[in-house]
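User: I want to check something. If I give you two sequences, will you return the structure for each one separately, not as a complex?

Assistant: Yes, each is folded on its own. Here is the first sequence with its structure:
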Amino acid sequence: MALCLCSAPLAAGVINVNVAELTDALENATREPDAVSRLVLGEIQSQLDNSEVQLSDGELIYTDTQTNRVVEDGCTNTTVQQVTTDIALTGNTSLSLAFESLFEPLGISLDLSVEVNAAGRAKQNFGVRLGRCVEIATDTFDFSATGPLRLLLDLSVSLNPQWINNQTLQITPVISIDGELREGRIRVDVDDSLLRSLIEDFLQDEVNALLGPGAVQQEIESLQQSIDTQLQEALGGANADGTLTIELPDASDDQIAVLYELLTPQSRFPLTESFIETYRLPLIAALILDDQQTLTDILTNAAECQLGGVLQTDLAVPAMYSRASGACERVTNPAASGTYYGDAQCNSPFSFVPTELPDFCVTALDSLRLGNAQSDTGTLNTWTLSPGTTFELGALSLTGKQQPLTSRVQYKSIDTAAGECALEIRVYSNNPAATNQRPVIALHGGSWQRRGSGFLGIEHMATHFTDAGYVVFAPFYRLIGEADGTPACHNATLADIVADINDAFDWVLGNQAQYGASGRPVVFGQSAGGHLALSLAVRRSAEVSSAALFYAPTDFADFASQYNAGAYDNPQGQRIIEAVTGAALATIDTTSELIRQNSFPAIVQQRPTDFPPVFMLHGESDSLLPARQSIRLCNALAGNAEDGVAAESDSLAKVTRRFSCDDRGSELHLVGEGEHTLDLCISPELCLAGSPASAVATGAAIQRMLKWIDNPAAVNAPETNAVNGGTGRFGFPWLVAALWLMNLCVKKKKRNGSK
């Protein structure tokens, strides 16, 4: 649900590489932690070994030796008896690649900085033509030619894409090359010759003719002609129009599913099937052309959120009363701002401001507003009905639930170098006048770097929690990097985030009574939010009643060890952990304070009875955040993270495996087909839990969690390796299969024009 551990969209920019950096990388290739980098560097070294270019003192050197070469023929002629030439690309030689989008030209610049050092021996014959050549003198001499050259080459590649119709994209590639000789100071020196000055002038003229600006320009023009010819041939020959036509495929269920998986990590709002179908063509074109700006524009457009309105489900509205007519009367559809009451006697007033879907979308898609207590200050400390709590996004349906009221409150303010970071906490309750309810602190995912759709996962779960009788407190926190949130809340450390969550916990303890809650809070989190919830459960165990963790990263040390052993190779997850720790996975010091403090199984197994019971839900097909993380925590709760009742499986034949981790009620639910964010489910064929049967099992596990958190010890412990059942979002499995097949048939009929 919370789209955590997501990579940021690829960014346009400029890549610069110089020879000095390349030579340093090649010399240290064996110590390079990244396997892909080692492979690339190894291939470069192999090419160098098979060529005549060598590395020496940070330079790439080409050496050439020639003998008995006639430079000038005629009665007066020169024969180079032997010459050895070293051409060194100095460390300043660089390659620059500038990329904005393939709708814009791709620019490649090569700045060649060369040192030429040639030395040899030559024989000069002097003669005159008297019917035939008559030799009048000869001279043998040593010579050298040394000095710098600097040549700048620019290559521009333009695709010029155009839509011919709604399914045909035409590309007209154009490649142009330009350049100039920025510097050319090759000095010729001749020794041991009676005609030294004359020979030096002659050789200098020859060098200038070969390496002067005019000669370089002729070579560039010749290269341009060659490129144009080869490009024309590649596009179909001399009679072709120089274009390449791409026919985009017709829409299909498989295509929609693939687009959904590709685009979801970049989206701030859960994508709907109707949204993908509506924007299918520009999305495919942007993916083909790697046009990140277009993707960003589409995926953060308010239309995305408003099309998501099809996911809304009608929920019962909380009991609200008004004295508008003088008497205390029930309001069935509160549409106006004002004072309402939470009881039939109108003794418990609260301020209410309605939120329509377009207003909700504006905030949900705006990184400067979502979670920022300084935005929309007029709605702080008021109550509303957030559309986000009615979105049918999960494997467990909202049908039959009551929509909670939502209130925004500022719980913390931090002065940073970029200004004031004002953090809000959202409170969800079925009735502001209620009392004796249990508190849940719900923490959003997003790889500790994002809010966006991760917080919508919390809003969906808030409806389930409040319907079960809880008051939900959902805090925002500072973020690592600059991908989301206000600038003042950027570039936080993991320690900063944990500090925010602890302050939010203190705020809840000090303020929960005014929202009708009491007692030790339950902590809940999805993905990175699960990590933060576990941090509270471990660090403040006496104050936490229980913890519910969905696909949570629990063991940083194990991440590093699995990567170093070659058992974990997901680059997206690698980048996230490296962003959080500030170090390459292969170089992480597992004894460092940050790693030890966030390797919870090692902490828990020392005194497992000191910690509250934990409920865990994880997908066994989660390649981003392996289920091993939850398995180790489950076993640690029994005293040994390395060995216990829970274990990884080579076979995913069972829909769900369930484990009782300890004798205090801790449970682990593993969904065989489940991917990361397995509780996100917007249609039977777009469930990250997997098949419809797997979605049912996931929904059943979530339903069990809602009962479990009230009293873990009272819920009957499942048998180890039992197959999960129950009803999830789609009801009984046979009905799920029927509806799913019916849905596919209807879609196929529509595409075939059937009625």
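And separately, the second sequence with its own structure:
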Amino acid sequence: MRSKWWGWGREGESYHLPDPERFWSYVRARLGKTEPTERLESPSEIKLSPSGLSDGVVSELSAAVGAQSVSTDAATRAVFSLGKGYKDLIRIRRGEVPNPTDVVVTPGTEEHVLEVLKLARRHGLAVIPFGGGTSVVGGVEPAAGRTSITLDLADLSRPLAIDQHSATATVQAGIMGPDLERFLNPSGFTLGHFPQSFVYSTVGGWIATRSAGQNSTHYGTIAEHVQSLHLAHPDGLLTTPSVPAAAAGPDLVQVITGSEGTLGVITQATLRLSRLPEYDDFRGYLLPSFAAGVEAAREIMQAGLSPSVLRVSDETETESALAMRAPPTGFAGVLEGAGRWYLGRRGLSLESGSVMILGFEGTEADVKHERAAAKKILSRHGAFSIGKGAGRAWQRGRYEAPLLRDTLLDHGLIVETLETAVPWDRYLALHAAVREAIYEALGERSVVMAHLSHSYRDGGSIYYTFLAPQEKGAELEQWERVKTAATEAIVRNGGALSHHHGIGADHRRWMPAYLGDQGARWLSAIKTAIDPDDILNPGKLVPPSTEARRSPAAADDG
């Protein structure tokens, strides 16, 4: 099930604030008074330009996939024309869909996908793959000026097989996270891939964006899980070999992983699995500073440990999280008071420290061994255990944060996220530089927080969240100013242009600066060779100065 059209989660689902007054007092103290905003009641209220497809092309599509699988309905087209980024939600809430898709096609088979792609090439139509629609970087919005087909992959969502000997599973690309795990778990397996969008995103979307789940520090990113895949293209179906490893030139699986629909439509994948863990241990730790937490994380990774989750919140995020929980009462309140006194004696504070969530999964013996080794490292950095309760609370709420974004939008706040990754030697400098760039772009009435979400031997990710009062009437210009300042600070300080959100349309103008001119030309050359008419998700990933041009013959839509 996809999330609601104007936000995240199912209709009627919202973020539960345990103590709303405490939270809003925190917001008012930092951001001042906010003004509620209105939004449309239904996507049927959105006014779109008519579909640019001729009746003849619609008839051809209907003949190829069935009339019931082709929709030019305005409300359907509107919902399938935007993702879930801040810019997307601001526009769709007020009924602005500047680049609507012209038709939504829901293929029921791989052969249907191929037929649609061949038809699109004949008529010069752009094709945008649409899985769960959770892109936050403009990955599913049609390119301006192009007549477009959005390919809804919801019906290509079946699990196909499990190979228990090889520990792999083959599934159709439209399968969503919960359905995948329900298929795998009875056989004792898990993919171990749990991005925050897990409930509403698909395997194909994860592969197309080179996704990293919240447990990827232990299980690996999606790029490590893909053994083989099917890629539908106007010329036919590319099927990569199903082998554990090969030295047969550049790995085509890795070329396709992260290609964001610009090289074809991923329709099927064979994935490497892990055994379901028999035991887990998730705990919270309080450290004196974010710097201490980052250094402890580096040592944990370089000691060869394999935590499932290693998440370190900076001081601002730690303070914010505290404001979102209900204060304990009764005996629990007495215990917390005593705990705060004890922390103070150790030079620690919940208001000025840094919280780490550290989780291990596996056999009980392995988990206990790794936790003991990590505990020695943490002790050297002044960490204090705040118990399993903090770890369980994080596990319970791990998918809920985007629901709070909807509430904040309703109250007239800009709330957005962005992320990067950087080697350890530049980690704290980049963290500070990007934070300062965001503050400068937003002004004094703002909150900028961050956390380390994924760790490697050589570095880690930084995930930023920021909020401020919206500039009424200039909400998108405000977003653009902050996005530009933050992204330029990331590139200038040697960070990844994206760690796991992808490039889409929002980041692609920085690709030459990030990849270098030669790298940008290589990427463009791959796109041009495979898609010379630029019909495959145009306007995404490939740098705009070097992207492929459509041939004049491709302009006729029939």
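Because they were folded independently, the notes below concern the second chain alone. The longest strand covers residues 413-423. Confidence is low (pLDDT under 50) at residues 546-558.
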